[in-house]
Write a structure and sequence with these properties.
The structure is a single chain. By secondary structure, this protein is of the alpha/beta class. The chain folds into three domains: 2-139 and 263-324, FAD/NAD(P)-binding domain, CATH 3.50.50; 144-260, FAD/NAD(P)-binding domain, CATH 3.50.50; 345-449, FAD/NAD-linked reductase, C-terminal dimerisation domain (Enolase-like, domain 1), CATH 3.30.390.30. The protein is built from 13 helices and 23 strands.
Length: 463
């Protein structure tokens, strides 16, 4: 069976690896020169390289508090950081190429377009296939009102290659991308202003997470304007942003970052040649096995109605390939996809928020543990944030976990496994956690939800 995969990002190249493992004849088509997709070249990896450098700078700035001497006026050389970023990205891209060779995956670089059932055209050459997986990913959305020019008004793609630290920046979008890049440049000394149409920061997260992030941002000197409808952008010596719920004279900054979501890459893919149509959100509808409405055509990753996250895309790719190979006869029983925002502080979550659980009519119990009461957090000098659990009241089944604080992105994996295995609060309470460790915050939050907090005394609710 010949399987063609269009797109070499976290969905596409993972699909190719799994298909090769299962003995399928695999061809991977990628338009860019290198494999890895947006995640590797313009998203997950490069942003985290920058953020790690920023975290080191923060650590050095407070190093005297930890007994270090001889460190005076530390600063960050953005040009060198960019050089390291490119080095990391290139190394990982070559690693993916090596995997394709070792797995015997045929890789074709070029623009792919469907030209009928079981046929695909790549730069003039036509290829036939038995099954195809579309994994073309997404790109930064840039509404016309902003007039993106790559200099004064930029997307994350532009900002990741900037080698000059701006004095001030307006960030439109308080989601993961906006908050991460705002955190990076704030650490470098850029004056940050956050603007979003939602009524809170990180609007997809639990409301208490948003409130804590708002507190931290205010403490860091950030300005935030929420519930904003943007009307106009003017360029001059500075960028001026106008809109409802903003100052009448507008707000100004040296540079404006548009971080207003992502758009699926489905244009000029030849969908009409096979009768496929996108939904109102500009994505392809699929069933529980990731099959589109057209037989033998699958779609995964950012082009379908699921969280636009690299790890979700890889997971979907594996399930799609296993269905093609005949290994998966039943749909996945449950899928718990963790989300992580690598801002300062980090945020991570999985499962239902408190508000979502209540909206479903569930009777719930909630437990929360502040990192300020945790020994390991005190050792690290990182006391901001908390660990929160949401569980069903009748049987204490875990429903959701929400973390804000140091290494939240690492801590969320335990919660994801617990949700997948249908763990209860009692299961987690009976699990011994190493001491001192940040993971103890899970145990402590669970004990609070059970009404038996150990290492802190929660405030009584005001009547």
């Amino acid at each position: 069976m010949r399987v063609v995969i269009v797109g070499g990002g976290p969905a596409g190249y993972v699909a190719a690896i799994r298909a090769s493992q299962l003995g399928l004849n695999v061809t991977l088509i990628e338009e860019d020169k290198y494999l890895g997709g947006t995640c590797l070249h313009r998203g997950c990896i490069p942003t985290k390289v920058l953020l790690h450098s920023a975290s080191l700078l923060r650590a050095v700035k407070v190093s005297k508090e930890f007994g270090l001497t001889g460190v005076n006026d530390p600063s960050l050389d953005l040009t060198k950081v960019q050089e390291r970023k490119r080095s990391v990205v290139r190394k990982l891209a070559l690693g993916i190429e090596g995997l394709m060779k070792k797995r015997g995956v045929e890789v074709i670089h070029g623009r792919a377009r469907l030209c009928g059932l079981h046929k695909l055209e790549v730069d003039g050459s036509v290829y036939e296939f038995d099954k195809i997986i579309l994994a073309t990913g997404s790109r930064a959305a840039a509404p016309a009102v902003f007039g993106v020019d790559g200099e004064q008004v930029v997307t994350s793609d532009h900002l990741l290659n900037l080698e000059k630290i701006p004095q001030s920046m307006i960030v439109v979008g308080a989601g993961a991308v906006g908050m991460e890049l705002a955190s990076f440049y704030s650490t470098l000394g850029t004056k940050i202003t956050i603007v979003d149409m939602a009524d809170r920061l990180l609007p997809l997260e639990d409301e208490e997470i948003s409130a804590e992030m708002q507190r931290v941002c205010r403490k860091s000197g950030w300005k935030t304007y929420l519930g904003v409808k943007i009307n106009k952008v003017e360029k001059g010596d500075e960028v001026t942003l106008y809109g409802e719920n903003l100052d009448p004279e507008g707000i100004k900054a040296e540079i404006l970052l548009v971080a207003a979501g992502r758009r699926a890459n489905l244009e000029d893919l030849g969908l009409e040649s096979v009768g496929l149509q996108v939904n109102r959100q500009g994505r392809l509808e699929v069933d529980s096995f990731y099959r589109t409405a057209v037989e033998d055509i699958y779609a995964v990753g950012d082009i379908i109605p699921s969280p636009q996250l690299a790890h979700m895309a890889s997971h979907e790719a594996i399930l799609a390939v296993e269905h093609i190979a005949g290994l998966r006869k039943e749909a996945e029983e449950s899928c718990f996809c963790p989300a992580a925002t690598y801002s300062y502080p980090e945020v991570a979550s999985v499962g239902l928020t408190e508000a979502e659980a209540k909206k479903r009519g569930l009777d719930i119990v909630v437990g929360k543990f502040p990192l300020a009461a945790l020994g390991k957090a005190a050792i690290l000098g990182e006391s901001a944030g908390f660990y929160k659990v949401v569980a069903r009241a009748e049987d204490h089944l875990l429903l959701g976990v929400h973390i804000i604080g140091v290494q939240a992105s690492e801590l969320i994996s335990e919660a994801t496994i617990a949700l997948k295995k249908k763990a209860t609060l009692e299961d987690l309470a009976a699990t011994i956690h190493a001491h001192p460790a940040l993971a103890e915050s899970c145990h402590e939050a669970v004990e609070h939800a059970l009404g038996t907090p150990l290492n802190f005394m929660p405030r009584e609710s005001r009547k």
